[in-house]
Design brief:
The chain is α/β, with parallel strands linked by helices. Helices cover 40% and strands 15% of the residues. It has twelve helices and 14 strands. The radius of gyration is 21 Å and the shape is globular. It starts with 12 loop residues before the first helix and ends with a helix. The chain binds pyridoxal-5'-phosphate. One of its GO terms (molecular function) is pyridoxal phosphate binding.
């Protein structure tokens, strides 16, 4: 039986040719294509600068370091995210502080951030989860009023728009190009910023703290992207608008068919927001049962994320004891359905008919 997969990177002849050209050029590590890709991604996102690195995790880590965040600092973020969000804060020696989320978009609730601000708070790091923008106007106000740095985990939200502006352009942005994301470079990531100082520092952090060869002004790492990845990224970036359209079309078809089915809650899109549907995520009380049922019918689904970060063994060991009720409920109820560009209208009928049958059998 052919499975409808939950994710499928779209790789075509153009990517293969782009990689071949890099290999033939002989410049296979960081070279001119990385610089070109950075300019194109900055233009797309509407920022002055972009600094390409070798993962989304590296982008978050370098963004925090570029802002001077470290030991003794607190960064407020979401526990309902991929572990890299909070781990990148730990890497710097700073402490992740978790605020609860909104029930509708699964993104940080602005009014709950304010309660968590202390004298040690240096930054807030909203996550644009599933491709739905966080409340950026409120986030920006909180950051300005409390003199805090704003770092956006935009790893799932390439091209998402909040009130006419792309995410990653409100604060310092961090994107991932992992194969399951809305565009890929194989492994890869990028930092976006309007600050020349932050871009320069991120470039140094990427290359062992040097801007002049063998002169090391600060502690840095090897976070470099290769020209092979950048070449794939440039092809994918050209197609990103059509990928987003396909995801939005699929999301609309899914919602049209799922709306009104007993026990299923469809994803919300807030006013002024362009959701890019990295994931199409429903809520249901019997989530694990539905996931098993769909698997039997050859339909892939995903749970992002079954254990909130503050409940992970390592974080419990660190002493985290938060009660984040909305986060914990979401982690029990969410189920993501296939929405990627390779999903056809026929696939959507298969998926939604199966969910309808499941719901009818239960009632
Ligand atoms: C994918 C992802 C990351 C990490 O990106 P990698 O490229 O896998 O390192 C960070 N945060 C979120 C929300 C992500 O989805």
């Amino acid at each position: 039986m052919n499975m409808i997969p939950i994710a499928k990177p779209q790789l075509e002849e153009a990517e293969i040719e782009a990689v071949n050209n890099v290999l033939r050029s002989g410049i296979i590590a960081e070279g001119p294509r990385v610089a070109e890709f950075e300019q194109e991604f900055a233009d797309y996102t509407g920022t002055e600068y972009a600094v390409a690195v070798n993962s989304g995790t590296a982008a978050l880590h370098a963004a925090l370091l570029a802002h001077g965040i470290g030991k003794g600092d607190e960064v407020i973020t979401s526990s309902f995210s991929f572990i890299a969000t909070a781990n990148s804060i730990l890497f710097t020696g700073a402490k992740p502080v978790f605020a609860d989320i909104r029930a509708d978009t699964f993104n940080l609730a602005p009014q709950l951030i304010e309660e968590k601000i202390t004298a040690s708070t240096k930054a807030i790091m909203p996550v644009h989860l599933y491709g739905h923008p966080a409340d950026m106007e409120a986030m920006r106000d909180i950051a300005e009023d409390n003199d805090l740095i704003l770092i956006e985990d935009a790893c799932q939200a390439h091209g998402a728009i909040y009130n006419g502006k792309k995410v990653g352009s409100f604060g310092t942005g961090a994107f991932s190009f992992y194969p399951t994301k809305n565009m890929t470079t194989s492994e890869g990531g990028i930092i976006t910023t309007n600050s020349k100082e932050i871009a320069d520092r991120a470039r140094m952090i990427r290359a062992h703290g040097s801007r002049q060869r063998y002169l090391h002004e600060m502690l840095g790492y090897n976070l470099r992207m290769t020209d092979i990845s950048a070449a794939i990224g440039m092809v994918q970036l050209k197609r990103l608008p059509s990928y987003i359209k396909a995801r939005q079309r699929n999301a609309k078809l899914l919602t049209d068919k799922l709306q009104g089915i007993e026990g299923i809650e469809c994803p919300a899109v807030r006013n002024g927001c362009q959701h890019v549907f990295h994931q199409y995520t429903i809520r249901t009380r019997n989530r694990d049962q539905l996931s098993d049922y769909l698997k039997e019918k050859g339909i892939g689904s995903g749970i992002y994320y079954p254990i909130p970060i503050h409940k992970q063994p390592y974080y419990k060991e660190l002493g985290y004891k938060d009660n984040l009720l909305v986060t914990e409920k979401a982690s029990r109820e969410v189920l993501s359905l296939p929405v990627h560009p390779a999903v056809t209208e026929n696939d959507i009928n298969t998926i939604t008919n199966a969910i309808k049958l499941w719901s009818d059998e239960k009632c």
